[in-house]
Amino acid sequence: xxxxxxxxxxxxxxxxxxxxxxxxxxxxxxxxxxxxxxxxxxxxxxxxxxxxxxxxxxxxxxxxxxxxxxxxxxxxxxxxxxxxxxxxxxxxxxxxxxxxxxxxxxxxxxxxxxxxxxxxxxxxxxxxxxxxxxxxxxxxxxxxxxxxxxxxxxxxxxxxxxxxxxxxxxxxxxxxxxxxxxxxxxxxxxxxxxxxxxxxxxxxxxxxxxxxxxxxxxxxxxxxxxx
Length: 227
Fold this sequence. Notes:
CATH class: Alpha Beta
Largest sheet: 6 strands, mixed
Structural class: alpha+beta
Number of strands: 13
Radius of gyration: 19 Å
Strand content: 15-25%
CATH architecture: Alpha-Beta Complex
Number of helices: 8
Order of helices and strands: HHEEHEEEEEEHHEEEEEHHH
Distance between the termini: 58 Å
Number of domains: 1
């Protein structure tokens, strides 16, 4: 009796440009354990492209910035290159996210081992992915309800911080001291000029020492205790 071929039992591999739904995308991806990066945007599969040193170093600094905030803000969670299920046609893999955990009143949930819905904040380091980050991904994040969307634009050395207001993104401007301040995560402060020099921690520390951040931490703790 012939032995069934293992190849026949496996789903087809993912390819750039495949048109799938989220369930099929995840089914095929999970059958490719060596594949580290792929995302489904408006029903179309996008694969990884080579990343420059500039992208990696800026990604590292942005992750440090968000990571320090998360470490000092119980009830929040952050992550890098994490898959999010945002409906039947969208499964993006943003560079970085920051969210309020569901048990502390956050708007996102988990779908198995993946995130589901919209984390409160997403950050994309935009180099070779610039057209997607400013185009289809911004549309997906807006429609999903990501409340703050930051693009770190490598070509222009610019940080674009958007806030969701009445279902539309509005770009935030620095305050009179040149500081960008999150409206969703009190105390998450950034000096956009200093960021490019790797000097972002002093301003963040000021934000973390603010009464607004202390009140936010207390609020997250209170929501947890009520459940």
